[in-house]
Amino acid sequence: MATAPWTAHPHCPAHLRGEVEAHVRALPPAFLNEPLSGEVFDNVELCKERLQGFAFAQGFAITQQSGSMKQARPRFDFQCIYHENSTRNYRKLEKHVERDEEDKITSRRKQEATTINARNCPYLIYLAFKQIGKRGSREFGLVLGVKDSSYSHSMAVNPLVYAEHKKALSGYQMTLDLGKSLRSAYISYSAARRVLEQAGFPLDCKGYYNLRYRALSAEKDEFAGLVVALEDAGFVFECRMEEEIDQQSGEVVDTQLQQIWFAHPDQIRYAQRFITGWTLFVDSTFNTNARNLVLLVMAGITNYNRTFVAALSFARSESKMSFDFIF
């Protein structure tokens, strides 16, 4: 009698349900069963894949705590991601945010509510290298042992809340590649998010800006910092890229940011009101920064006969292309 296909939790997000179910159904059926003592594996990676597959279907994640085949008696411990009884606190922060009489934060800890994985979950499974045949057979292998199969937490309705499970999905890897391409082109997160959502795995703002397509030079890092700062401050911006193409293969080997135009929404509203059908002034300044970039300043005049800055643009040169881009 055929068994019904595995289905995700009813509360699993609808846009992720298909990927979650496809991943679990592609696993060997045995992976969905509770791990049992005595299971034998050819290598540690296969054991981790089996345990992580079971955890994915259940709604938690496994982490390897110790083990090496170089040990005299190799043993590998696998625990629930919530196994700790306290946070590691590598930075030695205070337990709570501390404030002075003026309500200003005086402690090194700046946020009270942080994600904590320490729930003292007792779940523990080990993999030991020992004899698997009859006594004296000299036949050894990696054998699974279950020390504690209980949990101290509820299961997640969406297993993709764990980074370990996200990385295992081919669709997520494709989204990362897409995000890296958008990131290398200095596309803002607000614009890239719509594209990433259509791919099925939207990245958060922090995750998107942490992506790197290739090792960036210090100059590109500064441009990237400017893009992040503009996005965080709510500016509207556009970038002009220039591609370096290999003459032999015809492939793009590098991209370089040539110019960035930016304006605040309030500036855009002023420009629409006072510049449209009237006058726009454009001027450029030199040697205003360590990179010797040209700063193009666009200005207008209000009905009170006062000038205002409508937009700004950093460019590598005062060329015709730089002026064409801002218009």
Tell me what you see in this structure.
With 327 residues, this protein is α+β, with helices and mostly antiparallel strands. It has three domains: 14-87 and 115-158, no CATH class; 169-214; 216-326, no CATH class. The protein is 29% helix and 23% strand. The chain has nine helices and ten strands. The protein has helices at residues 14-26, 44-58, 163-166, 170-184, 189-199, 205-209, 218-232, 265-274, 320-326, and strands at 40-41, 62-66, 75-80, 124-131, 140-148, 236-245, 252-263, 281-285, 294-301, 307-315. The strands form two sheets. Strands 1-5-4-3-2 form a five-stranded antiparallel sheet, covered by helices on one side. A hairpin with a 6-residue loop joins strand 6 (236-245) and strand 7. Helix 4 runs antiparallel to helix 5. It is elongated and about 95 Å long.
What does this entry show, briefly?
The protein is of the alpha+beta class.
> How are strands sequenced across the largest beta sheet?
1-5-4-3-2
Helix and strand string, N-terminal first? HEHEEEEHHHHHEEHEEEH
Q: List segments where confidence is low: pLDDT < 50 over at least 5 consecutive residues.
A: 213-219
Largest sheet: 5 strands, antiparallel
Taking all residues together, what is the mean pLDDT?
A: 80
| CA radius of gyration | 28 Å
Integer tally of domains: 3
* Tally of individual helices: 9
Helix content: 25-40%
Q: What's the N-to-C terminus distance?
A: 69 Å
Oligomer: single chain
Shape: elongated
Strand content: 15-25%
- Beta strand count: 10
Supply the helix-strand structural class: alpha+beta
